[in-house]
Amino acid sequence: MQFDPTLYVITDSTYHTTETLLHAVDEACAGGATLIQLREKDTGGRDYLALAQQVKAVTDKYGVPLIIDDRVDVAIACDAAGVHVGASDLPVAVCRRLLGPDKIVGATAKSVEAAKAAYEDGADYLGTGAIYPTTTHVTTRITPVETLDEICRTVPIPVVAIGGLNADNMDVLADSPIAGVAIVSAVMKADDPRAAAAHIKEKVLAMRK
């Protein structure tokens, strides 16, 4: 499946109701998000699926691919565009086998070795970071931009920078060969998610020129 990783918005429902989460996703898509990831670290499968189906109804309206974090079963059940897995989740090769060749499999890679392994196992893109400390409840370890750049040069698949990024601190990536940025709080916490998404996307496109 073809996809554009320029502005990859990742949800965080810890400060949202279902209604406001769906609204934020809608506004992010309207503002130019090119990928949406539903991330629910503490939600059971049944509730995760119910929310995923609602979020997918929004992303489908805009033609934006929906990626499910961690849960391949939920991704399959809601017919999402794909799944994103970390080091403690199902292996990339297993996800690829379960999802088949036409779905997106993304993987977290914090080292060149992990990036090579994920690519060889069938990953379509990599998420690398955290570039900055984050305010999410996901445990993070800072990844130097030099490591990010080396990963970009090592694998032939898109690499997306993630971790505490916003419109005011992205200049550190100005010379990096990234394919896009993954944003959580800067869009999901914004008073105007549409404007925030549009502004960040504009900056990413300018950096990639």
Question: What does this molecule look like?
Answer:
The protein has 209 residues and is α/β, with parallel strands linked by helices. The chain has 8 helices and 8 strands, in the order βαβαβαβαβαβαββαα. The protein has an 8-stranded parallel barrel, surrounded by 6 helices. α1 packs parallel to α2 and α1 packs parallel to α8. The radius of gyration is 16 Å and the shape is globular. The model has no long low-confidence stretch (mean pLDDT 96).
Please mark out the parts with pLDDT under 50 across 5 or more consecutive residues, or reply none. none
Quaternary status: single chain
- Main beta sheet, described? 8 strands, parallel, barrel
Number of helices: 8
What is the CA–CA distance across the termini?
A: 25 Å
Work out the helicity level: 40-55%
Structure classification: alpha/beta
What is the chain-wise order of helices and strands?
EHEHEHEHEHEHEEHH
Q: Estimate what percentage of residues fall within beta strands.
A: 15-25%
Radius of gyration: 16 Å
